[in-house]
Specification:
Layout lengths: L1 H26 L4 E8 L6 E4 L10 E7 L5 E8 H8 L4 E8 L3 E7 L17 E6 L1 E7 L5 E7 L9 E7 L3 H23 L8 H6 L4 E4 L5 E4 L42 E4 L5 E4 L25
Parallel strand pairs: 2-5
Antiparallel strand pairs: 1-10, 2-9, 3-8, 3-10, 4-7, 4-9, 5-6, 11-12, 13-14
Helix pairs in contact: 1-3
Length: 305
């Protein structure tokens, strides 16, 4: 089950990374998609988009219209109501639908052979530009219904028209890079999950890495020693069930010396009422009150047996 789940995560990561690569390749560092130039088959004087064909509120778009032999051309973006009132009685090509990057459906609208006035004389355009042989606009679409118009100026027409459109996606290039990193991370995670490898070491694993060296002196007192001091001792591997002595505390006791003589045995003495000393075995100490004298011997009696 883990192998299948890990494989699925890896495949998803690969797809996300490839999608990020595609975004970066299409947008480029400037975050723009360019489509065109596209030839538009018309011999009329006006091309206008129908209301709500352009509906990407907040997006930045650019339109470049190019005509041969330096014929004058005008490109403008305005409120759909203003544009429709301006060209409503003029014969024009209307774009009824548009899909990115360039897919349109059009129809011819019959009317008069000329515009009611020069487009450059209108003051309601949101963005406009006119030129010989070509004109372009670049603007962020407002929160209102707008239409794009490409118009001839004077007595010329739009025969031979070519249109190039650009779309800007703010932060798109960085988004593609982020998707690549996300995909790579998913692939690595899926591989580790599929192999049942833990991303974070457990407490048990951490404890196994801590090795504590203990020296026990002749009195049975344990002393923690460093790895550098091991050459002075005979090392034995002994499992330790108690908690390891890793708190760095100072343990009193003599300096470790393997060659020192063993300590002399302790002698327990019982002194009776007449001051006579009697040696007592260690197994009989429970019948007496033990008091450590200067030499570690019993010098006071609890009860006489």
């Amino acid at each position: 089950m883990r192998r299948k789940a890990g494989l699925g995560i890896m495949l998803a990561g690969i797809l996300v990374a490839l999608f990020g690569v595609a975004i970066m390749a299409v947008l480029g560092p400037d975050g723009r998609i360019k489509s065109g130039p596209h030839e538009v088959d018309t011999d009329g004087i006006a091309i206008v988009t129908a209301p709500r064909v352009i509906s990407w509120t907040g997006a930045r778009v650019g339109v470049f219209a190019e005509l041969p032999v330096n014929k004058p051309v005008f490109v403008g973006l305005g409120n759909s109501l203003d544009v429709e009132n301006y060209v409503g009685e003029t014969a024009h090509l209307q774009i009824d639908s548009y899909h990115v990057p360039w897919k349109t459906t059009t129809r011819e609208i019959k009317g008069r052979p000329n515009l009611p006035a020069a487009p450059t004389a209108m003051d309601w355009w949101i963005a406009e530009n006119a030129g010989l042989g070509g004109a372009s606009i670049s603007t962020r679409l407002p929160d209102e219904t707008v239409s794009l118009a490409i118009l001839s100026v004077g007595s010329s027409n739009l025969t031979g028209l070519k249109v190039t459109v650009t779309y800007e996606i703010k932060g798109g290039f960085g988004l593609g890079g982020g998707l690549i990193l996300l995909g790579i991370g998913a692939v690595l995670f899926g591989r580790m999950y599929r192999s049942d490898v833990s991303l974070w070491p457990s407490d048990a694993d951490a404890d196994e890495d801590d090795v504590v060296y203990i020296y026990t002196d002749e009195n049975g007192v344990e002393h923690e020693i460093s790895e550098d001091e091991l050459h002075e001792f005979e090392v034995e591997d002994t499992p330790i069930d108690d908690e390891p002595h890793t708190d760095g505390r100072d343990i009193p006791g003599p300096t470790p010396d393997l060659e020192s003589e063993p300590a002399e045995p302790v002698v327990y003495v019982y002194v009776d009422d007449e001051g006579v000393e009697h040696e007592v075995g260690e197994d009989s100490l429970e019948d007496y009150e033990v008091v450590d004298g200067p030499d570690g011997q019993t010098d006071d009696q609890r009860n006489q047996p």
